[in-house]
Every structure is written in structure tokens, then in C-alpha cells.
Design brief:
The protein has 285 residues and is of the alpha/beta class. The chain has nine helices and five strands. The chain has helices at residues 2-34, 61-64, 75-83, 97-111, 130-146, 167-183, 191-195, 211-231, 252-272, and strands spanning 51-59, 86-91, 113-119, 150-154, 187-189. A five-stranded parallel sheet has the order 2-1-3-4-5, with helices on both faces. Strand 3 (113-119), helix 5 and strand 4 (150-154) form a beta-alpha-beta unit. Helix 1 (2-34) packs antiparallel against helix 9 (252-272), helix 3 (75-83) crosses helix 8 (211-231) and helix 4 runs parallel beside helix 5. The chain is globular. It starts with a helix and ends in a 13-residue tail after the last helix. The relative contact order is 0.16.
Length: 285
């Protein structure tokens, strides 16, 4: 009995003393590999039954990425690598802002994301006013907020070459998006400024970002997600230790549970069968 008690106590102590250090080492290794600061654990924002480790990227072909760039080169794929969280690519080629309004409720119910990234407008240009486009974007953001999902809007990416004629409209649209979204208390990822209106980040069609442009989009959204977490009390997740997160890290709480199970298991076996070698019991499952 004394051996069992010491065994269980050892596991409890190991969990409480070493688990945080292991988490730190893992984070440092990830930082070294990616050169990106890993976001704090889920903030104090009330996500309801949504998962703060799930991010929904909503938009048109610029979000979808393929077939203009490889699947691993899309900005949702880059962002997932930066964050170490699940980023769902819900982009649809040719989509308008009104399509996002029509889809948002179903996507929120299906994926229960903690964050939704909203980037529409490239296909709305020259079809409807900046005010109407922005109204649709805010409707999507409001729906997400009511769902306890944090929305982050984006300005429309620059154009070049055969589509340079849209530049002035996009400049006006981006100003309206930024002003109205900020007034409503929403964060805006200013992708146009991040691109610097440089054609080198676009494909020859003058619209779709190339691989380098996709990395810029990911970086811009990444910074806004960090800002959202800071605004919402980033570093929340008090509980100490680590948990089994979306990226599969084993944490202190689960180690404590495992220690308890080990202790109960050996106590039960010892009580039922003092000589387990003579009458071994096979345990499955």
C-alpha cells in the first residue's frame, strides 16, 4: 500500500512541477521554428460553446486561394502554421459580400469558431456602393458577435495591371470599411496597407495574391488576432499546467487524472489479488 501511495504522489508532483516547464520548452521550440510569437492561451472573452482554437476564414477566391496558388500557400494555411490552431478555409470563388451574409449562420453552427475573418469586396467592386458592401460586412460581423464569435474584418487587397481601373473605388471602399468597422468596435486587418499597393505581391491577373502576398495576408490577420486576445484579457486560461489542446499537447490536468487512475488501478488489483503474477488479468479498452 505504501508503494502505491508513493507512486501516485510521484505522478502528482511530476505533473505540478514539470508540466509548465515542458510547455515552455515546447513554445520556445515552436517560436524558434516559425519566428512568430505564439498567442496567449484563450482569452477571458466568453466564447460560449465556440472553440477559441478554431478560426473561420470567410471570403471569396482570395481566401479560397486555389487554383491560383497551392493549397498550402493560401493565407488560411499560412495562418494555421503561425498560430498552431485550426483555420478553416471557407472561401468561395466569385462570392460577394451578400453571399457571406447568407452563409454565416450555417458556418457558425457547423464549425463553432472562436474567431471569424471576414474579407469580401473584390467582386462587389463596381457593382454596388461602398456603403452597401460595408453594411453587408457589418451584418456578418454582428451575426458573429451575437454568436460570441470574435469577428475581424479586412480591407480589400490592392489591384494592378488589367484591374488598375478599380483602384480609386477600392481606396474609397477601404476607407468606409475602416471607419464604419472601427466605429462599431471591430478590429480591421488593413491588408491594402500591408501590401503597399505593390504589384509584386499579385499574380498577372492583377487581382489574386501570389504566394508572397498570401503570407502578407496571414501575417496581417495574425497580428490582429494577437490584438484581439490582448483586448479581451489575453493570457486568460488560468488553470495552470497545460491541457490536451487542438495541437495535441498533454497538460497538467490530464496528467493528474492519469495519476489518479493509475493509483486506483493498482490499489484495486492489489486488494483483489495479492499475487498478480499467479493469476494475471487481461485489461482491454
Amino acid at each position: 500500500m505504501q508503494r502505491v501511495f508513493i507512486f501516485a504522489l510521484f505522478f502528482f508532483t511530476l505533473c505540478l512541477t514539470l508540466a509548465p516547464q515542458s510547455s515552455l520548452a515546447s513554445a520556445e521550440l515552436q517560436l524558434h521554428k516559425s519566428n512568430f510569437q505564439q498567442p496567449a492561451s484563450p482569452p477571458a472573452h466568453d466564447f460560449g460553446d465556440n472553440d477559441p482554437n478554431v478560426i473561420l476564414a470567410l471570403g471569396d477566391s482570395i481566401t479560397e486561394g486555389t487554383p491560383f496558388v497551392g493549397r498550402s500557400e493560401t493565407y488560411p494555411a499560412h495562418l494555421q502554421a503561425m498560430l498552431g490552431r485550426t483555420v478553416i478555409n471557407a472561401g468561395v470563388g466569385g462570392a460577394r459580400s451578400r453571399d457571406g451574409v447568407a452563409r454565416i449562420n450555417g458556418l457558425l453552427r457547423r464549425y463553432k469558431p472562436g474567431y471569424v475573418l471576414i474579407m469580401y469586396g473584390a467582386n462587389d467592386v463596381m457593382e454596388r456602393s461602398a456603403e452597401e458592401i460595408t453594411k453587408n460586412l457589418l451584418t456578418i460581423a454582428n451575426t458573429a458577435t451575437e454568436n460570441k464569435t470574435i469577428p475581424i474584418l479586412a480591407t480589400v487587397t490592392p489591384v494592378d495591371g488589367p484591374r488598375i481601373g478599380r483602384k480609386n473605388f477600392i481606396l474609397n471602399l477601404n476607407e468606409v470599411i475602416t471607419t464604419k468597422a472601427t466605429e462599431s468596435g471591430y478590429l480591421v486587418a488593413d491588408t491594402a496597407t500591408a501590401f503597399g499597393w505593390e504589384g509584386q505581391y499579385l499574380l498577372s491577373d492583377g487581382l489574386h495574391p501570389n504566394s508572397a502576398g498570401m503570407e502578407i495576408l496571414a501575417q496581417t490577420y495574425y497580428e490582429k488576432i494577437l490584438e484581439a486576445e490582448n483586448e479581451n484579457g489575453g493570457g486568460g486560461g488560468g488553470g495552470g499546467g497545460c491541457t490536451i489542446a487542438a495541437h495535441g499537447r498533454l497538460t497538467g490536468d490530464w496528467l493528474i487524472v492519469l495519476a489518479g487512475l493509475f493509483a486506483l488501478f493498482f490499489l484495486g488489483r492489489r486488494g483483489r489479488n495479492p499475487h498478480p503474477a499467479k493469476n494475471a488479468e487481461v485489461i482491454t479498452g
